[in-house]
Design goal:
Length: 277
């Protein structure tokens, strides 16, 4: 019997008092042949506390074919629409293809007039979930849960301040892009997209002590120190040879290619917490 049909033993009062949600029995069939066939997106936040860089939200876009996640950090939800438009434009230029279908929840930070008009001009089909059905955006929801759980584990392991959550989730996404998944246990998402095997030589323990080199032009004299110690918080976007180091004393992120790591020490993370930063 069709479980959506009301049977003769059920009345209006039964429906009003006992009706439950229809089970999500089947996974959504995403039929893709190549990258940019389908993209899904979701926004998470506000995340507390506000990060050191002032971010309160995270915005994820996932390519269904490769399961490659792109994370963008936002200070306000309203930034998501322009970020989405810029991302789609960039990917279409880089891979010489048009996005065929875009799916998200019905949040107005994503589904607004600017995005709707852009997708219409782009020839992209737009679909969205009905209210209160995050299960219909499961890939984006699951990716967010994966990235946030990874970020929390990395932060708990090194005991860094929660204000570095933005750096942790960005680094988690960097690692996921270079890891096999349930979707594909042979290739990583980034290899599925670029057809090139990614390097993992630059992967180090999040939150560990790291020394970054001070160029001689930035030293006052011959006796000045050659390096400063900070917290390793990730790699620079688009360039794996540059590392991001949070200097606790200077209270700023330093980007440097000349870095040495002590992956078993977390003294700077402890100092940051003790100083209440």
């Amino acid at each position: 019997m069709n479980d959506r049909m009301i049977n003769m033993n059920e009345c209006d009062a039964c429906m009003k008092g006992k009706m439950t949600r229809t089970p999500f029995k089947n996974k959504i069939n995403y039929n893709t042949q190549q990258p940019m066939d389908i993209n899904v997106a979701d926004t998470m936040g506000p995340i507390k506390p506000t990060s050191l860089s002032g971010f309160r939200y995270a915005f994820v876009i996932v390519d269904i074919h490769t399961r490659l996640p792109y994370i963008y950090l936002l200070r306000d939800k309203t930034e998501a629409a322009q970020v989405l438009i810029d991302h789609i434009t960039m990917m279409q230029t880089q891979f010489n293809t048009l996005l065929k279908l875009f799916h998200s929840d019905g949040g107005t930070e994503i589904v607004n007039s600017d995005v709707i008009e852009f997708l219409k001009r782009n020839g992209t089909i737009r679909t969205n979930t009905t209210p209160n059905t995050p299960q219909n955006n499961a890939v984006a929801e699951t990716m967010f849960r994966t990235l946030m759980n990874m970020a929390k584990c990395m932060m708990y392991h090194s005991n860094v301040s929660k204000k570095l959550w933005d750096e942790a989730i960005m680094y988690a996404a960097h690692v996921v892009r270079r890891s096999t998944t349930k979707h594909d246990d042979k290739d990583t998402p980034i290899k599925s997209l670029t057809k090139q095997k990614p390097s993992i030589k630059h992967i180090h323990t999040f939150g560990c002590d790291a020394f970054y080199h001070i160029h001689k032009d930035n030293r006052e004299g011959k006796l000045d120190q050659n390096a400063r110690k900070g917290i390793f918080v990730g790699v620079a976007g688009g360039n794996e040879t540059y590392f991001r180091i949070y200097d606790v004393e200077l209270n700023k992120i330093i980007t440097s290619r000349d870095v040495r790591f002590n992956e078993n020490m977390f003294t700077q993370a402890k100092q940051m917490v003790n100083e209440g930063k």
